[in-house]
Amino acid sequence: MKTSTLVIRTPEGIVFSQILAGPVVRFLAWFIDHLFIVVLLMVFGAVMALLGIFGAGGFAVAFAIIGWFVVGVGYGIFFEWHWRGQTIGKKLFRLRVVDVEGMRLQFNQIVVRNLLRFVDELPLFYFVGGVACWLSPKCQRLGDLAANTVVVRNPQVLEPDLDQILAGKFNSLRQFPHLVARLRQNSSPAEAGIALQTLLRRDEFDPVARVELFGDLATHFRAKVEFPPEATDGVADEQYLRNVVDILYRTNGTERP
Amino acid sequence: MLNHLETEPNAQMTLQQLQLFHQLYERTAAGLAKITTFSSEPETRRYLENLISRAYGEIHETRDRQTKFHPIEWVFQTLPRTFRRHIGAFYLSVAITIAGCLFGGGAIALDPDSKPVLMPFPNLLEDPQKRVEEEEHSSTDQLQGMKSTFAADLMTHNIKVSIFTLALGMSWGFGTIIMLFYNGVILGAVAVDYIRAGETKFLLGWLMPHGVIEIPSILIAGQAGLMLAMAMIGRGSRLSMRARLRAISPDVTTLIFGVAMFLVWAGFIESFLSQYHEPVIPYEVKIAFGSVELILLTAFLSMSGREKSKGVRAGDNQTVRVENPQSKVAAVQTTDGTPGAHSTEL
Question: Please, what is the Cα angle at A2 between B43 and A131, to 5 degrees?
Fold first, then answer.
């Protein structure tokens, strides 16, 4: 079955997931790498041409032929080994080659996946690799299948500035710890994320749409746990949502977990 | 610690660092387990997941820890042992090439006009007798000032062909078999063409100095390709395809680097020796040189890296299976191979 994430369960029972990179973003990363290889070969060719002027013509051409071959084949191997699964193109697109079982990436895996490019790039522009990637459940080209590797995407994780939206406000809901615990239990991470994003992007909304959105979300969270009237009376929908986010994202009233 | 491990591929931790690393891993894992049971900050969860995913491989890796590369040990022990460990695939590679040779040779013997179809290379289409006459009466060195360029060309071309032969193993072996068979066809056709023209001595003097290294190299590349194919097919194995491919991956790497090493040597010899014929170099000298190379290569691949005292023939494909019931990981270790080279999850 095709999946967009690589899910690994550790012997400790912990489950973690990584986002698999699709064929398009991988092709773009390869394109950047290819450009870099071309530039590298041009510089190398210029140096060899300079050597040729100084009377080492035969050797210069021989070195150029070997150098082009080594750079072409060894570029991926060198960078993926020294940068733990990343090349320049992969770094730019935040991609990384990892072992399919989450283990350490070994040198032989890097060699095998890079040598099998010879087949993956057939007949042109990685057609075989692209088709294999598209058909494979884990988006693996033939080289990845042989080497037991996958390419994952590590999007940059930005920590939200909660103090900016929650600081200095009295949270009337916290007076009822058992209901607070129930709210945490009943809310999914996705719901919490939506509530937080709504507050963070508050000023981007049209005023009428904003009031409606806060109203809908407040109603949604009110339905999950019913707090006593003394905690909710006179609290606007927006403030109610702030109180909910405060509860979901902070284990106590003052500090973040 | 993770950053250090990631920026330094050969980094090794002390016992104290390992203990601290393990403790931090367990604390992070516990934190992640706790945080996933209730709604919480997704960024924190992602951050902890990121830490766990990076540390997981360091903690749970059961394969051999990669140590510093020792070239002498690799050449004289790892490479020949790896070759012998998969000798069956090599024999198969030889058989396919011989079948190609028989086909190519037979085709030329029965129908000499098929030469342009079997060998679509201009330099091979010439009449052998005419070529020998031209080579032996040539007063100029045709490779003057170009020998190093020619050698580089040969090396890179042959290594590319070898890598391609290996990589085509992923087509369940069909591509590798076609490559080996076609190489055999050309070899057989050229050999029969020259033998029929009465130029056997020239043929041996021309091909042997470099061919005795180059041809086995392509056969070894074919061996590696067939190993990939066998791992994909998995006949008679209860392991998953992933486990089978994981098990042969180090050996495939070793063989292809060995092939590259041999082909560098063959490229030099072909450029600096093979292209010179009588009266510059007597054919007997070239044939003797090729024969010595062949004996040395055979001795190297069949005897180098043998363990004498164990009472077990090196190259035998005997296995010792050590099972760890807790981790459900079996270490399959060949008696003459690199220890712990194959660790596969059952």
Answer: 115
